[in-house]
């Protein structure tokens, strides 16, 4: 698959799960606005798009979304099905996938990610709530979205330092 096609597929998959890039940019703005005077949602969106161009990020997003989809179809098999369905706190693989995104932009991403993962502002709270409904699994999606936003915030911080 061509690079641009893969990027478009990833964005489409994110959108299909009920999340827009603008909503991820809002999370990025939430993380960086107090450190960057004049930061705009457009700058945040540009950085979200840049994060999504990375192959490692694309792979993590496609993998996590597919696992959520398979869980919704009850196709994972137990005990994995139960762990993903109920987003067990000791499962942790959803966070490991998020960490693969965060590693692309350095350690500041881990702090950003931990902060919004705990607070669940904006779309993260919506994803978390929708994932608790019958027939819907968002175990990986909330962590992926949080990681993309945190990575974009890290990218902004790194570029600002330069």
Automatic annotation (TrEMBL):
CDD domains: PgpA (cd06971). InterPro entries: PgpA-like_sf, Put_PGPase, YutG/PgpA. Residues 29-158 form the YutG/PgpA domain. It holds the Pfam family PgpA. This is YutG/PgpA domain-containing protein. It comes from Turicibacter faecis. The gene is yutG.
